[in-house]
């Protein structure tokens, strides 16, 4: 996953203090700055090159063939909104949208396989799709990713819920990435001190206690205490 930010240096200060991340140097291909925890990759911060584009976190689904998956997305009623693009030796990426317009990424790994850590404090723990038509979402994503989403030996990382259950019903369908934290209230206090704000106060879910935060540049994400 990565955050597209107007000011990557400000993002490094915010997320570095909030989650204890350190950062590598911007890579020559795409200017993406890798974020690490304990030396392992956990995310990336990417400079937003077009001010008309949203400031967002994007989740990427791994695939052995981004082009072929893009064709399946189109056939299922979604669309490929950008790419596939080769990102140097790291891999190949594309941006797609489901039939309701929720945007997600595709990642065909090269040298960069994906997360080095997850399901630990300061790392990815869950992504939730907020959608208006949960049955249509089940059909679309189940058809694309059935083994990854529903395989018996795979720990679930992905859920979906009707958008009106947490956000106003008029909010567009979207993905929300969740970061694990050891202490939810402490994380919310730290985010506020760093210039962020709580968008949705803590609430209980089947997978833990969640709050939604907006960072100091407007990108939304969730913090999750299990």
TrEMBL record:
GO MF annotation: an example: hydrolase activity
Name of the protein: Hydrolase
Domain annotation VOC: ranges: 1-109
UniProt keyword list: Hydrolase
InterPro entries reported in the protein's UniProt record: Anthracycline_SecMetBiosynth, Glyas_Bleomycin-R_OHBP_Dase, Glyas_Fos-R_dOase_dom, VOC_core
Keyword Hydrolase among record annotations: yes
PANTHER family according to UniProt: CONSERVED PROTEIN, GLYOXALASE-RELATED
């Amino acid at each position: 996953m990565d955050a597209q930010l107007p000011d990557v240096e400000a993002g490094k200060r915010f997320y570095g203090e909030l989650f204890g991340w350190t950062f590598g140097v911007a890579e020559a291909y795409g200017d993406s700055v890798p974020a690490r925890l304990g030396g392992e990759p956990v995310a990336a911060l990417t400079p937003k090159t077009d001010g008309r584009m949203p400031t967002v976190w994007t989740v990427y689904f791994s695939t052995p063939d981004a082009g072929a998956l893009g064709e399946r997305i189109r056939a299922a009623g979604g669309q490929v909104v950008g790419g596939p693009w080769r990102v140097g030796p790291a891999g190949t990426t594309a941006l797609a949208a489901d039939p309701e317009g929720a945007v997600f990424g595709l990642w065909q790994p090269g040298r960069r396989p994906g997360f080095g850590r997850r399901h630990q404090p300061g790392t990815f723990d869950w992504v939730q799709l907020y959608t208006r038509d949960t049955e249509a979402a089940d059909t679309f994503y189940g058809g694309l990713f059935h083994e990854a989403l529903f395989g018996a030996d795979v720990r679930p990382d992905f859920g979906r819920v009707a958008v009106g259950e947490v956000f106003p019903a008029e909010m567009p369908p979207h993905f929300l990435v969740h970061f694990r934290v050891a202490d939810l209230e402490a994380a919310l206090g730290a985010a506020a001190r760093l210039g962020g704000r709580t968008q949705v106060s803590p609430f209980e879910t089947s997978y833990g206690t969640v709050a939604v935060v907006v960072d100091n540049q407007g990108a939304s994400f969730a913090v999750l205490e299990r």
